[in-house]
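G.,

No rush on this.
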Amino acid sequence: MTEEYGAGPSTGSGTSTGSATSPGAGAAEVGPIVLVGPPSSGKTTVGRLLAAELGTDFLDVDELIEQRTGKLIGEIFADDGEPAFRELETATTIEVITDPTQPQSRVISLGGGAVTSAQIRRALTPYRVVWLRVGIAAAAKRIGLNTARPLLLGNVRGQLIKLMREREPLYAEVATIDLATDDVEPEELVQLIIDGLRG
């Protein structure tokens, strides 16, 4: 059973109800701590703070892809298309979460759409995965008119609703800890994650 803090999985209205279950609930206490969630859920901000609190390394997969390719994620989408990006994202994600040369307790932030890859979801099974949820209203407010997010161009709210409805079951599938982020400060989220990991 996924450990929950705050309300349950968010619906398209931005409210939160219910609970999530996960085959990964028996995740090992070693290996990376992986953050998943939709755009604007705070994965990078919370991930950096969590890593600092735990005294370990932090890695953002989107940032790593941009460093390796010399392109922004949006540019990869525009130049090569989404299928090519997803293939690159899958290979990079599996590489970093299974890398035995890195600190066992490192914190890794995945791209918002990484869970759409069945290969990534399978690779996450042994690990501790934190799902950072955010309601539609809060997500739209945080994103604003950020055109750097290639799948959210145009009608931001409409695209967010579509993406969240498609991806929430996938986040729930991999999550071992489930956190609602609306109106919660990043520092508080870090403490909730640590409490969940210890629990």
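When you get to it, here's the other one too:
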Amino acid sequence: MVLPSLLRQTRRLVLNTPPRPALPSRSHPVLLRASLARVWRWTSTASAAAAKESPAAVEDPADLSLDPEISEHLKTLPVEARQLLVRDYPVIQEYLAPTQSHLLTLTLQPYLKFSDIAAPNPQEKRTLHNPFTIKNILPVYGQTLPPGFHLAYFNGYTQESDLSADGYISSQGPGGDWTRRMWAGGKLTFNSMPDKRRKGYDRGARRGRPLDIGRRAICHETIEDIQMKGEPGSDNEMMFVYIKRKLWGLGYIVKEPTKSPKLIGEVTTSEDDPTVILPDEEVPLVEQRCLVYMKPKPVEKDVPPMPKNNITTASKSRADKAEFSHNLTPTPTLLFRYSALTFNAHKIHLDPTYTKQNEGHKDLVVHGPLVLTFLLELLRNHTLGLEKEWKVNSFEYRNITPLFVNEPINIYGRLIPDAPVPERIPEEDPRERLPPMYDEMDALRKLLKQLTVQKTAGELTEEEYDAKRKPARKKLRALKSESDKLEKFHPVEQREIEYKVYELWAENDKGQIAVRGTALIEDLPQKAEMTPEQQWKRYQAELARNKRLLQKQALRSHKEMIREKKKERKSKLRYAQMERERVRRQQKEDEWKSRRDGAVAAGANALNENEDEENDESWEVIEGEEDFSDDEDLSDDGEDFSDDEDSKYDDDEDSKPKK
């Protein structure tokens, strides 16, 4: 890592990294621009690892039994820096939704004229009010994020209580008196992620998937190193914190993260396990950041201003050396929208009063990542006009002076023709592994013969013979299978990759260089013209593929038809059963009603019959009494009662029964 050398004013921008073990299919990083002299710098991994392994390194690094250089480096760091070295950060899981990338595109469009975006039709009424009517602007699922667009993702899940008084994430800062923060520089390394593993070369290596739209992704963040600049203990002392972030994709490309096959009852493999941290060469993007922390600005005293003759500019304008350029003027709206997209609440980008009074700046400060995105977009739009297709391999930059809102920014770029290019390292031939495999297979065959002889002689029991024979035969079968594959292997001719080195920089309205960086781009493989034989073979392969697809489609349609018929039959049976149940219930209800009506009618008839019988009996009694009285009258002495008519009728009325 060479970020500290970028921060030196007396050194030119370099990109010099030591060779690292990588898969043969990837190019190795080399020196892009020759430096005047190689400056040895402290490697961060040793000090950071030593501080994490031993908790005593935070309190007293002199008591550690470490390398003297490591101990001496830890001694120069304040307590806040040593505590920051041992701090662990959680793995950030993100879903690369197309909305975030689309909003960033809409935010940058008024300031950078994208070549791949068609301007809207001004005569269409809805175009001016609906940004989604712009053609070819929505990202497609499976499309890789453009360089710099990853900054809109992987910003952590923090609440307001997790922020510092200045508005940035407090977990990334040392705390204490180090409250002011600025973006000092960084480096982006884009590793090539092949579409599929090549047989014989990769040997089952695990690679992270590309950062494609619609894919789940992982960000692993660590503190690599901390460097101190300035006089120790003074107000001008600065702490440079070097952060390393590795980003890679997981799983499949899905339109909704909850419907990913990896999330629905499927066992997660080590390749898609977010807890497994992949090495640098196995991830599509490695980002290195340099953040500088400073102490609060002291109260200004009555100091006479310096004469103008002693004031020197940071850098002179290099606009005459540029081959392509673009100018823009950032507005407060741009800063606000970019802060919202990156989940950044740093007050120097949002609050002008705080920026002027507490930070001492004249106005709002433009984001360092925003300027980085401008430079990458300038390079991307320039490469679109070239004959071949190009991709960014790496980009290393350094922030020299801040840029402010409402001030013009000029961004430039030029090709460095004399820059060295990476050397192509020949890939290892997998067939070179065959001789030692043959020797091992011969040794296993001899061992099996020896075991058979010992068993025949009675030196080994049946259990001992099986215990030694089974693992040997299993290993022999595995070696035989691998050797057969290697014997049929045909090496693929390596493609000559063409590299170009570009220098990009941004200047303010005074011609001072604010940001400067170097980018390495490589060409993408072109589609070669096929011969008639190759075209015929491809045509036959397409026919066979289409035939298989048609067969699968017909089988799928047949299964779907059978499934629909079964479903329809079940529904008919269910409806018929429901109808029979309804009829049975209706018949039962009608039968119950008829029985009820019959019972009611029978009860009413019985009641009427009883009343009629009672009436008949009463009338019979009355008639009997009348006959008996007549007999008495006839047997009487001849007395005549006909003269007393009133008494006769009264007696008749009293003798009638009452109902």
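Residues 90-96+145-300 form one domain. The beta strands are 92-95, 180-190, 216-229, 238-250, 285-294, 324-328, 390-399, 409-415, 499-507, 513-523.

Enjoy the weekend,
O.
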